[in-house]
Design goal:
The protein is mainly alpha-helical and 350 residues long. Helix content is 77%, strand content 0%. It has one domain: Rhodopsin 7-helix transmembrane proteins (Rhopdopsin 7-helix transmembrane proteins, Up-down Bundle). It starts with 7 loop residues before the first helix and ends with a helix.
């Protein structure tokens, strides 16, 4: 049977709908338009699938970790304070994922624009807070391993103060992300996240922001973690110092290695691509292969950054002996209490 030709009205409707959707997409640079790379439909299913995969396990793991770290660990040294703050940063991003999932499935934002920008802001707040807290965990474990006498005199309030400074600095530094992306879509309230606009910047301001973001948010932390990993590895070859044995060194080495692994897997791809992505948006890079590869890799790099919400709880459980001990003790006590309640109930029946 011959297929029916689409009517003129339906064709006009589809064309109009497609044009409106493309207008709601990221404000495109001339490099994107010239290379025909203005529309990336795969990113919606990629984001939705990634966030669905992260949400439930990440919510349960980080909630349990935060509960155990805060309630069952009285000895808050060995970077436990930094782990608590890292878990809070992950939960802040995880709690915004249902709204992200809704948008990427329906491609429609029915809520207030302020809520969209808040969720967008929490993504980058989580990324850079995680970077700095991972750096602090790695640095502290390394220093305390090499200088155990300093670890004995270290006060909990020092970690609290450092954490407060990190939240203030990171919270302020991440404000430009939603501000720069809240442009070009003033009349399009149905768009959010990947479809937010992009504000063109002055060249001097652009270079300054990129250099600061890359140095402070990536280069300095990655050098610090690499040095801590190397120092901790070398320390295993030296004779044991007072108040610590070889097992303590191995624990510290596993902790530092895990911090490095999370950093490399989650944050390195984004920051390498970030430089090229910014230059594409500003039409500094015009080579079509580079433009297309940069824009196509950008959603994957953001998804990898969100995976830290799943990898960080592994850091708590497998690398912190206090966490494992308290979790096993609490789990065994719950099991014993349940068995005792069942036995008492059965004895009353009999």
């Amino acid at each position: 049977m011959p297929q029916k030709e689409p009517s003129h009205n339906s064709t006009v409707f589809l064309a109009k709908h497609t044009e409106i959707f493309k207008m709601g997409s990221n404000s495109t640079s001339s490099a994107e338009s010239n290379c025909n790379a203005t529309y990336l439909p795969f990113q919606y299913s990629l984001y939705a699938t990634t966030y669905i995969f992260i949400f439930i396990p990440g919510l349960l793991a980080n909630s349990a970790a935060l509960w155990v770290l805060c309630r069952f660990i009285s000895k808050k040294n060995k970077a436990i304070i930094f782990m608590i703050n890292l878990s809070v940063a992950d939960l802040a991003h995880i709690l915004s994922l249902p709204l992200r999932i809704y948008y990427y499935i329906n491609r429609h934002w029915p809520f207030q624009r302020a809520l969209c920008l808040l969720c967008f802001y929490l993504k980058y707040l989580n990324m850079y807070a995680s970077i700095f807290f991972l750096t602090c965990i790695s640095l502290q474990r390394c220093l305390f391993l090499l200088k155990p006498f300093r670890a004995r005199n270290w006060k909990r309030r020092y970690d609290v103060g450092i954490s407060a400074v990190i939240w203030i600095v990171v919270g302020t530094a991440c404000l430009p992300f939603p501000i720069l992306r809240n442009a070009g879509l003033a009349n399009n309230t149905d768009s959010c996240f990947a479809d937010l606009g992009y504000k063109q910047m002055d060249a001097v301001v652009l270079v300054t922001m990129v250099v600061i973001a890359e140095l402070a948010g990536f280069v300095i932390p990655v050098i610090t973690i690499a040095c801590c990993t190397w120092k901790t590895t070398v320390s295993l070859k030296h004779p044991p110092i007072a108040f610590q044995g070889i097992s303590e060194r191995k624990k510290a080495l596993r902790m530092v290695f895990m911090c490095a692994a999370v950093f490399v897997i989650c944050f390195t791809p984004y920051h390498i691509n970030f430089i090229f992505y910014t230059m594409v948006k500003e039409s500094i890079i015009t080579s079509c292969p580079t433009v297309k590869s940069t824009l196509y890799f950008h959603p994957f790099s953001l998804c990898l950054a969100s995976l830290c919400c799943l990898l960080d709880p592994i850091l708590y459980y497998f690398m912190a002996s206090e966490f494992r001990d308290q979790l096993s003790r609490h789990g065994s006590s719950v099991t014993r209490s349940r068995l005792m309640s069942r036995e008492s109930g059965s004895s009353m029946v009999n």
